[in-house]
Write a structure and sequence with these properties.
The structure is a single chain. With 374 residues, the chain is α/β, with parallel strands linked by helices. It is 34% helix and 22% strand. It is built from 12 helices and 18 strands. Strands 14-15-16-18-17 form a 5-stranded mixed barrel. Strands 1-2-3 form a 3-stranded parallel beta sheet. The longest helix has 26 residues. It is globular. It starts with a strand and ends with a strand. 37% of the residues are buried. The structure holds iron/sulfur cluster.
């Protein structure tokens, strides 16, 4: 049995998913193959062409997947990560986006904003805490649009985090990607007052640091607004880290606009960048516009990657000689710090959150010594 959950956010994601399906079909011709996720929703024909015997299941049918295998859905606690205290958990709190960024296909696939009930999220958090999960990462397409009204009580993202942090246990909470307009002072205050239980780490998609490009992208903020929110965050969390997504080679982006964007990001001193090469997504506005040549897109992506490399190096060097608290990963041979550094340790980290002192760098990767017995 094989279930493949696909992504379609870029052309590269499509290619990888289709290659995986062809590989599974070739190597395991007798496997019962079910394909779901955003590519299955957007382009079921492409999926069937790559894997003719697969059962293709769109978002609405996901709950039926266990039944396709003749199984009943597992109870919630069975979905917990192996409770060895060395696995971070990803807690989906929200789904869908109703914005209209010119390059993005997500609103055509998941157009409805859905926020999961507070009670359900609290129950999962209690179960994670009881299982010894050290870190819970809150996920959603538009995390900052989390909003529930249950029994007359309104709960937004900050309100939800407050409730989750009331759950007893030695765990912390991390935000995944958040739009800059959702990065509120209230969240920053919460981060400052949480004593490390809400990680001082933000990933705020920038996409471009040039207003003209942002406007064509149909992003709804300016570079200056972004800068002011980043400054407010850093004032509230001076030791926190800031990461961003950027798109290299957006249609009609001139050399000067690319340089302006790169210069903006350089000034902002991000701790790391996720660089996406622009790829046209069917049905989006930008797919009709003239994209720079492959050569230009590659050169711009390379310039962004060089900046990313520099900034990640600076982030790692800043940690040397300082304490960090690690959530174990990779069977405890390394861990993820509160400010999202991967730190290698001598030996093996024990269960749960572990304080370490970062002692040096090995091949650019921070190395550390645990301060408590593990
Ligand atoms: S905010 Fe824009 S980029 Fe993000 S999911 Fe929505 S449409 Fe896509």
């Amino acid at each position: 049995m094989c279930v493949v959950n696909t992504c379609t956010v870029t052309a590269e994601a499509d290619r990888e998913a289709l290659a995986l399906l062809r590989r599974v079909t070739r190597r395991n011709p007798a496997a019962r193959l079910v394909v779901t996720g955003c590519l299955a929703e957007r382009a079921p024909d492409l999926v069937r062409a790559a894997a003719p015997h697969a059962t293709v299941v769109g978002h609405a049918g996901k709950a039926s997947i266990p039944a396709l295998f003749g199984c009943a859905p597992a109870p919630a606690e069975a979905a917990l990560p192996a409770s060895n205290g060395r696995s971070r958990a990803f807690l989906k709190i929200q789904d869908g986006c109703n914005m209209a960024c010119a390059y993005c296909t997500i609103p055509s696939i998941r157009p409805t904003l859905v926020s999961l009930p507070v009670a359900e999220l609290l129950e999962k958090t209690r179960a994670y805490a009881a299982a010894g999960v050290p870190e819970i990462v809150l996920c959603g397409v538009r995390l900052g649009r989390y909003l529930r009204r249950d029994a007359g009580t309104r709960t937004d993202l900050a309100g939800l985090i407050e409730r989750l942090l009331e759950v007893p246990g030695n765990f912390r909470v991390r935000l995944s990607s958040l739009e800059v307009t959702d990065a509120t002072d209230r969240l920053f205050t919460l981060m400052r007052g949480a004593g490390g239980r809400l990680c001082p780490h933000l990933h705020l998609p920038l996409q471009s640091g040039c207003d003209a490009t942002l406007k064509r992208m149909k992003r709804w903020y300016t570079a200056d607004f972004y800068r002011r929110r980043a400054d407010a965050y850093r004032a509230a969390a001076p030791d926190g880290s800031l990461f961003a997504d950027v798109i290299a080679g957006f249609p009609e982006e001139t050399d000067a606009e690319h340089e302006e964007s790169l210069g903006f990001a350089r000034d902002l001193q991000f701790d790391g960048l996720h660089v996406f090469r622009y790829s046209p997504r069917p049905g989006t506005a930008a797919a009709r516009w003239k994209a720079p040549s492959e050569r230009v897109v590659s050169a711009r992506a390379q310039a962004w990657r060089t900046l990313d490399f520099e900034r990640r190096g600076a982030h790692a060097r800043r940690a040397v000689g300082r304490p960090r608290v690690l959530a174990p990963a990779l069977d405890g041979r390394e861990g993820v710090s509160e400010d999202f550094l991967t730190v290698r340790v001598d030996g093996v980290l024990g269960r749960g959150l572990t304080p370490v002192r970062v002692t040096g760098l090995a091949g650019g990767v921070p190395t550390g010594t645990a301060r408590t017995a593990v």
